[in-house]
């Protein structure tokens, strides 16, 4: 199968190539796409060297699937051009997520909604994906009514420029890479993406809106505070969820053990709980610190950690392609 990876030279694009190879996705020809200045650059994939191609050349090659991580404006402009030649686009930007004609997919939750008519599919925001994967079976069983989430997000979510800023600050080198308005080393920034008129950031509103769309339930009340921290390896989230139905903690644990994509990491007596260092490089969403919110009934606290470049982006996108292949919606 001809597969295009648009944004192939970025952090997430690189992770997409890694995951495609690791999961043996049936790529017969890779079309790595990046900015004009990168055209001709060589990329190694499954032991073969491929040259970065232009967007036009990739479209002309009519790939079966194009996995995008190239920002919203490029996706808005180029995804329809791929779709016009019959390519299925799986886009990691926010461009299409809230478009009512586009599906917002976490395979473990709503891949069954995909049809042959879906030519542009949106990959949710990383911080949303890990939260809804953790909540999936709990929501199914007890029906989430209100979610209060605080996130502790890795600088890798911003990209190479942010990782460079952190490394330069940490090493004492001259800081030439300014990804943030403030120092990030030994600091935290309660500021991810831009502020909106309601005082929330775009990142926070993504979690609010995307959660409702993925669960197909506009009545779920979500409020979020998203924070950037000087950490590599993954995003962490403190999730407080109020359910319609009463729950039993042991049953919650059992449901989490049965939840696709979740690894229960919860034994505080032995200092066992989810941490980014353990999530890094894995596709599982690690869940722990389970405890009842003793201030109100039917409410659970939990701690959720995942590698934001993998399940939060690249792996989720490749899993969508795998599901579509399985469902006969992609031609090999
Ligand atoms: C971030 N979720 O962490 C956003 C985009 N990757 O910056």
UniProtKB/TrEMBL annotation:
Example GO biological process: lysine biosynthetic process via diaminopimelate
Role of this protein: Catalyzes the NADPH-dependent formation of L-aspartate-semialdehyde (L-ASA) by the reductive dephosphorylation of L-aspartyl-4-phosphate.
Residue positions of the active site: 126, 235
Binding site for phosphate: 97
Record InterPro entries: Asp_semialdehyde_DH (IPR012080), Asp_semialdehyde_DH_beta (IPR005986), NAD(P)-bd_dom_sf (IPR036291), Semialdehyde_DH_NAD-bd (IPR000534), Semialdhyde_DH_dimer_dom (IPR012280)
UniProt xrefs under SUPFAM superfamilies: Glyceraldehyde-3-phosphate dehydrogenase-like, C-terminal domain (SSF55347), NAD(P)-binding Rossmann-fold domains (SSF51735)
List of residues binding NADP(+): 9-12, 37-38, 308
Residues reported in the UniProt entry to bind substrate: 153, 228
SMART domains xref list: Semialdhyde_dh (SM00859)
Ranges where the Semialdehyde dehydrogenase NAD-binding domain occurs: 2-117
Family (UniProt): Belongs to the aspartate-semialdehyde dehydrogenase family.
Assembly notes: Homodimer.
Pathway in which this enzyme or protein is active: Amino-acid biosynthesis; L-threonine biosynthesis; L-threonine from L-aspartate: step 2/5; Amino-acid biosynthesis; L-methionine biosynthesis via de novo pathway; L-homoserine from L-aspartate: step 2/3; Amino-acid biosynthesis; L-lysine biosynthesis via DAP pathway; (S)-tetrahydrodipicolinate from L-aspartate: step 2/4
Protein name, UniProt field: Aspartate-semialdehyde dehydrogenase
Catalytic activity: L-aspartate 4-semialdehyde + phosphate + NADP(+) = 4-phospho-L-aspartate + NADPH + H(+)
Organism (species): Hymenobacter mucosus
E.C. no: 1.2.1.11
């Amino acid at each position: 199968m001809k597969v295009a990876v648009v944004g192939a030279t970025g952090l997430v694009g690189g992770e997409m190539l890694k995951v495609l190879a690791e999961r043996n996705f049936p790529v017969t020809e890779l079309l790595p796409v990046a900015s004009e200045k990168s055209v001709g650059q060589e990329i190694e994939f499954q032991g073969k060297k491929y040259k970065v191609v232009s967007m036009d050349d990739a479209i002309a090659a009519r790939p079966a699937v194009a996995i995008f991580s190239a920002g919203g404006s490029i996706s808005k402009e180029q995804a329809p051009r791929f779709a016009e030649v019959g390519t299925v686009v799986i886009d990691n930007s926010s461009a299409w997520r809230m478009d009512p004609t586009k599906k917002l997919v976490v395979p473990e939750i709503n891949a069954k909604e995909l049809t042959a008519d879906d030519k542009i599919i949106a990959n949710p925001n990383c911080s949303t994906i890990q939260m809804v994967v953790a909540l999936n079976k709990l929501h199914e069983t007890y029906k989430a009514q209100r979610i209060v989430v605080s996130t502790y997000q890795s600088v890798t979510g911003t990209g190479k420029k942010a990782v460079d800023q952190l490394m330069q600050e940490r090493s004492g080198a001259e800081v030439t890479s300014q990804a943030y308005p403030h120092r990030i080393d030994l600091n935290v920034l309660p500021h991810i993406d831009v502020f909106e008129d309601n005082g929330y950031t775009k990142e926070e509103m993504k979690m609010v809106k995307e959660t409702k769309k993925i669960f197909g339930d506009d009545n779920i009340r979500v409020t979020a505070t998203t924070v950037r921290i000087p950490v590599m390896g993954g995003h962490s989230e403190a999730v407080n969820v109020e359910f319609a139905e009463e729950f039993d903690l042991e049953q919650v644990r059992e449901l989490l053990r049965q939840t696709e994509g979740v690894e229960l990491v919860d034994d505080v007596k032995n200092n066992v709980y989810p941490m980014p260092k353990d999530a890094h490089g894995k596709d599982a969403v690690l869940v722990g610190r389970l405890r009842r919110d003793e201030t109100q009934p039917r409410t659970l606290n939990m701690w959720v950690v995942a590698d934001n470049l993998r399940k939060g982006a690249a792996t989720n996108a490749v899993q969508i392609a795998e599901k579509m292949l399985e469902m006969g919606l992609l031609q090999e």
